[in-house]
Amino acid sequence: MEISPATTDDVDAIVDLWVELARDQQAVGSHLLAEGNRPAVREAVAQRLVTDDVFLATVDDAIVGFVMVTIERGRYRQSVTRGLVENIFVEPAYRDAGIGGALLRRAERALTDAGADVVSLEVMADNDAARRFYADHGYAPHRVTLEKPTENDTL
Question: pTM (2 decimals)?
Answer without folding.
Answer: 0.92
